[in-house]
Amino acid sequence: MANQHFQIAIIGAGPAGMAAALTTTKAGLETIVIDDQKDCGGQVYRNLQANQKISPAYLGQSYYDGVNLARSFAGCGAICRPNCTVWQITDAHEIALVSRGKAELITADYIIIATGAIERPMPVKGWTLPGVMSVGGAQTLLKQAAIGAEDAVFVGSGPLLYLTAWQYIKAGLSVRAVIDITGAKQWRSAIPFAPLALFQPGMLAMGWKWIGDIRRNTEVINHVSAVEITGQSQAQGVSCTLLTGDKIEIGSNHIFLHQGVVPNVNLTMATGLAHQWDHQAHCWRPVIDVTGKSSDEQIYIAGDGGGIGGAKAAAIAGRLAASAIVARCGKPRFLAQLYYKLRHLHYLSIRPFLDRLYLPPAHFRLAQADETIICRCEAVSKADVDAALDSGASGPNQLKAFCRAGMGRCQGRSCGLVVQEMIASHTGQSMTETGYYRLRPPVKPITLAELASLEGPWPE
Amino acid sequence: MFKSTMPQNGEIVHLHFDGKAITAFDGDNLAAALLRAGKAQFRTAAKNDPRGPYCMMGVCFECLVEIDGRPNQQACQITVRDGMMIQRQNAPDNAGKTSG
């Protein structure tokens, strides 16, 4: 059986993927869009079609901004494959995926990877206890299932934290406290970039409103030096140490952690594309040109997966990558490309300010207490990692062999950046020199039965 | 405890979690349905470490449960079906212990 072939394969149906499909289908290119969720929208516009019918106001305007994009996408003529997990892209540009227990290969002339962002790990003591979730997880429950927790505590910083705490308040849930880890140092480094951020007055005003509403409705705790979550088999509360040395104990069974988002590089790294350490955003990002073209001529990366810009920047990045591909297919789009490039720059003008303001302080990026779990999958603690470093583990891949950190199912998504920075601060090497886990397919765990179900030729 | 932020209606489906009956709405996300029913712990990791859903987007693998006898299912990526039998998934007692 020959593999299905498409001119364009888009992986991820968030804003970048949906917008890219609008441009490629309009140019008459046969397009397939693959996503691991049951509905399009990605994480930011998750469950938008269903929510649109009842329109809960507490989700806020930034969420409903996606309605037009999702509606156009539904009618654009792209072939949609929801509930599909991509586990490999081969050198021959075969995309290996698994859907409902069955593996298959498709091929494409051009691939747009639009797999978005994941939350930066926040390794505080007790963060593995049931009842502790990421803020993104809490927000997903609000969008997907219209459920929220009473008396929750939000800990961390960044736009997603303020948005979600605001949504909680608007939904009528009582928020026990917001513990904001943004420090004076972050403000000092961000302020010089505030004038550039003024190119996005709407976004600044929105953030200002969220923070103002939060301050009016719940206790906000600033000047924090350490946070621990208490409890034995379930979260019982947060113990928070202030810069003054004072301690505050807050009881709650629901603690939501967040300290920013970073590109989800698992697929792009496992595909062998070039990556670089982003000093401003303190994360890895694929090396891409202004149109999103990666180190592989046939593969483009659009949206937050290529560098964090937010939903609106992602949609423009999708348009930009798609129009560059359309041009390579013989239909130049000079004016459209120029327009998308300028709009993309415009959306990104707020990032130098936000990236610096919400870069978590080093003591929150690294674990503080010895018992803190670093690798959640294998339950490897800070003390275990430190012991491996003392025994001479010199890099992330060697450290895996020493203590199993990064060997689990999540393939480093929850610990990679922490482990890398722990190694760098131990050896004194830079983050670039230290490097990241060597990621390999399958990008998501698949069973042997699923692999064996593959019909026709095996991946090259 | 998670509670609904909107009046919820829809067809009721019946699930079992560790042998106890739970109701959910048709089309519910499994992890969300279990959280709404007051279940916080979904599994144990190595070293008997209790875990529950963390990221809700398929990244962290903390919400793994056994469904109808099949282990390692990400509850946050699954839609409920009437009659689903869900078991907490516990790591073997010796998992995560390094030898020697």
Overall description:
- The complex is a heterodimer of chains A (460) and B (100).
- With 460 residues, chain A is of the alpha/beta class.
- Chain A has three domains: 4-118 and 262-332, FAD/NAD(P)-binding domain, CATH 3.50.50; 121-259, FAD/NAD(P)-binding domain; 366-434, Arc Repressor Mutant, subunit A, CATH 1.10.10.
- In chain A, the strands form six sheets. In chain A, strands 1, 2, 3, 4, 5, 6 and 20 form a seven-stranded mixed β-sheet that branches. In chain A, strands 8-16-10-11-12 form a five-stranded parallel β-sheet.
- Chain B contains one helix and eight strands, in the order βββαβββββ.
- The radius of gyration of chain B is 14 Å and the shape is globular.
- The relative contact order of chain B is 0.24.
- Chain B has 100 residues and is mainly beta.
- Classes of the chains: A alpha/beta (460), B mainly beta (100).
- Chains A and B meet through β8, α5 and β9 of A and β1, α1 and β5 of B.
Choose one word for the global shape of chain A: globular
Oligomer state of the chains in this structure: heterodimer
The span between the termini of chain B is 42 Å
Q: What is the helix fraction of residues of chain A, given as a range?
A: 25-40%
Q: Shape of chain B, please?
A: globular
Beta-strand share of residues of chain A: 15-25%
In the predicted model, the low-confidence regions of chain A spanning at least 5 consecutive residues are none
The number of helical segments of chain A is: 19
What gap, in angstroms, lies between the N and C termini of chain A? 15 Å
Largest interface: A-B, 51 and 40 residues
Q: What does the radius of gyration of chain B come to?
A: 14 Å
Write the layout of secondary structure elements.
The complex is a heterodimer of chains A (460) and B (100).
Chain A: E1 4-11, H1 15-26, E2 31-34, H2 48-54, H3 61-64, H4 67-74, E3 79-81, E4 84-89, E5 94-99, E6 102-113, E7 117-119, E8 132-134, H5 135-145, E9 147-149, E10 152-157, H6 159-170, E11 175-180, H7 184-190, H8 194-197, H9 201-217, E12 219-221, E13 224-230, E14 237-242, E15 247-251, E16 255-259, E17 261-263, H10 266-270, E18 275-278, E19 283-286, E20 299-301, H11 311-328, H12 334-348, H13 351-357, H14 362-365, E21 373-375, E22 380-381, H15 382-390, H16 396-403, H17 416-427, H18 431-434, H19 448-452
Helix pairs in contact in A: 1-4, 1-11, 5-6, 6-9, 7-13, 11-12
Chain B: E1 2-4, E2 12-17, E3 20-25, H1 30-36, E4 43-45, E5 49-51, E6 64-67, E7 70-74, E8 85-90
